[in-house]
Amino acid sequence: MAENDADQPQQPEPPKQRTCGTMPVHERLLRTNPAYLRARIASENYHHEFMQRGSIGGRTGVTTIPVVVHVVFNTAVQNISDAQIHSQIDVLNRDYRLKNADTSSVPAPYKPLAIDARIEFVLANTDPHGNPTNGITRTQTAEAAFTDDDKVKSAASGGADPWPANKYLNLWVCQLGGGLLGYAQFPGGPAATDGVVILHTGFGTTGTAAAPFNLGRTATHEVGHWLNLRHIWGDDGNGCNGSDFVDDTPNQAGPNFGTPAFPHVTCNNGPNGDMFMNYMDYVDDAAMFMFTAGQIVRMQACLDGDRSSIGTTVATLPAVDQPTLKFGDDNAPTLKFRDDQPSPTLKFRDDNAPTLKFRDDQPPPTLKFRDDNAPTLKFRDDQPTIKFRDDVPPPTIKFRDDAPPTQPQLDQQPKSPISDGPGFPPGGGGDPGFRGRRAVPFILSTPHHSMAWTRTFPQSAAAAAASYEQQILEYEQLLSDYVEADAAGQLLPEERQQAEAIHEEYLALYDEYWQQFGA
Hints:
Layout (H helix, E strand, L loop, with lengths): L2 H5 L14 H11 L1 H19 L9 E12 L8 H15 L22 E5 L12 E5 L28 E6 L7 E3 L11 E4 L17 H10 L66 H12 L7 E3 L81 E4 L42 E4 L6 H5 L1 H30 L5 H25 L2
Parallel strand pairs: 1-2, 1-3, 1-4, 4-6
Antiparallel strand pairs: 1-7, 5-6, 8-9
């Protein structure tokens, strides 16, 4: 070994299996940031409304998103080249416009679902101060590796500060530890940590990019999260009960790794099986090559709502075959207006400019929306709230078998504070009995019964149910995390106050539901 080689820090071995940190970050923010929970609820409700109005949004063309790449490096090897960065931008543009060559490998049953997302990416040419830039920042750090704790996103903790998240997609490229390939922050989180983080060996297609993650698909996957996409299996382990809130992605048991053979059947999803070639699965770069139409609706809803301030859109019109009027080659037509010219001539009314006329027996065409469109979901202007399905009774709070039987009655609103509510001890924080509780203190039971709206619009009702059930689960998860933290003696006084406030929101929502739909 050469003497100068011995002085170089040993580089970690690149990961051989995909690992994404987006969901741990999501769960951390749910537990520590009540505003994030409210933003996520509002985001899911907006997505549902977007679908209810036929996925009609303000961005009808191709949206171009300005990107800033923050290279945070500890060694010279980690200070990746401009060429490697440009190669990643190229991959994003191919993948999000369905111009990737490997789209031909999409299995036949799924080919009709793979469409153009109408999103492009470009390195920023103007910085936040209005100065010219190449869209790349470089920061040397003393940190050997970063994790999903967001320290790479702040100069104060050895990383690089973001550019304004409402104007730029911030991409951090660095050395990540623990086999982590990357992570993103869903819409609705703090602006100071908004963006995507990618391991330098999983970024782009050249330089330090290393197989099996050397085709730039880690960024494609993580930017999908940034645009509000979930993992395709629904992040429920292997339970077959999770949802990514997209109708055209099949249910599957859990993540796929490596390069599976088609079909790979789980959760009784035969004959076609898992859509493992989807960018939101965990397969190798060479095995993923599509988004679905439903995922693209969700991303467009995100651009229309959560991320409406970012990017510019250029309208595009599909190519349409126009009818043409053919004349003989020996007689080119002329358009004549003078009254003294012989026929044949094309005449217009003398007192009116030429207009496009339709058949006299039929009025001009108008743009009509379906009269039977499903009702839209309305919320208070000053605060997003969880809304429950119109066709279900109020949720019943059920305690686990090992918890005290203190179920509230449905003929009155539960009025207790969080310390007396589900998962919290009577009398407040110091009760030793609290620490003996199980991690998941309660579930919500919403038994189904048929109503006219569900019968008339079953697909809309199902979509609404999936959205609402996820919101309920996120409330459960958040309160459960507080219970867990308290059981471990790690719940700070300010966190207990946050928990109290969140539980009050839950009670208020319960009361609102009961007033509107209680019988």
